[in-house]
Design brief:
Helix content: 40-55%
Number of domains: 2
Bound molecules: fe (ii) ion
Strand content: under 5%
Order of helices and strands: HHHHHHHHHHHHHH
CATH topology of the largest domain: Hypothetical protein af1432
Distance between the termini: 46 Å
């Protein structure tokens, strides 16, 4: 099983991380994260999006790095090191909705839209479609440990099942489940080697999740993830507007103004230039 139609140039990927020596020194989870981010950014790049992952940001901060690679896309300069410039951000309204975040802070959001599109086309439940649509959006805020951050940020606004699935998708990616249509990505073997072991907390999360009543929902995020890296896919948020209306508890004051336990995370994405 391949990663959709997107060809990953192994050499370009390794070079983007700082070379083979850097890659050899990385643990497997780090490599996997790097790969996912590399692919997400490649798609956005192919789609002409504003989020292009700087090489230096992808990995073990090389000597000349000016940002840690786990930082969110909104905060990391893109482009080659000598020409880094922050993309312009549209000002947000006083009462922002999830749709406005998609339009002004998550765009082009190609990967999550593709993943949700596939979930919808294959007849998956609304909660799975919703989970796919939101599974990586927190990467605009922070990338490291993104499944845990993402689940927490979204928890006040989605069903428990949706946030649970998002929390566990990161760990499940490393464990095949052919019965549910998830093979271990062949690409991971080529890039990380055959004998790699996920970090203990990832393994523990997987073992917990696999016995959980919502395992299927989290597993489906990983299934749709595999096919969501096609740079030529045409996707839009429009088919999801009704589902968002039913599944996302949009606060009437607007995200960030609603005093929820995670309102500050949304505010941080609204105003990433606030100094304090
Ligand atoms: Fe993810
Ligand atoms: Fe993903």
């Amino acid at each position: 099983m391949g990663m959709g139609n997107m060809e990953i140039d192994r050499r370009a990927f390794i070079a983007s991380l700082g070379g083979m020596a850097v890659v050899d020194a990385m643990d497997s989870e780090t490599k996997a994260e790097a790969l996912e981010h590399y692919m997400v950014e490649k798609i956005d790049e192919a789609m002409g999006g504003h989020v292009e992952l700087a090489n230096a940001q992808v990995l073990p901060s090389p000597e000349e790095a000016t940002v840690r690679r786990g930082v969110g896309s909104l905060f990391a300069p893109s482009g080659p090191a000598d020409a880094r410039k922050m993309p312009k951000l549209a000002p947000m309204s006083n009462n922002p909705t999830l749709l406005e975040f998609f339009e002004k802070r998550f765009a082009p959001a190609n990967h999550v839209l593709q993943s949700a599109t596939r979930a919808m086309k294959t007849g998956m439940s609304e909660e799975i479609v919703m989970a796919c649509l939101l599974h990586d959006v927190v990467q605009n805020l922070v990338k490291v440990d993104h499944a845990w951050w993402g689940a927490q940020m979204l928890e006040p606004y989605v069903t428990e099942k949706v946030s649970w699935a998002i929390r566990y998708h990161q760990a499940l990616r490393f464990y095949p489940d052919p019965a549910h249509g998830y093979e271990y990505p062949e690409l991971y073997n080529r890039i990380y080697g055959k004998d790699y072991e996920p970090q203990p907390h990832i393994k523990a999360a997987y073992e917990f999740a696999r016995k959980h009543k919502w395992y299927f929902e989290a597993r489906m995020i990983t299934v749709n993830d595999l096919y969501a890296f096609d740079p030529n896919a045409k996707v839009s948020i429009d088919p999801f507007i009704d589902i968002i209306g039913r599944q996302f508890k949009q606060p009437k004051e607007g995200l960030g103004n609603d005093n929820s336990p995670t309102a500050h995370m949304w505010r941080t994405m609204m105003f990433p230039d606030n100094p304090l």
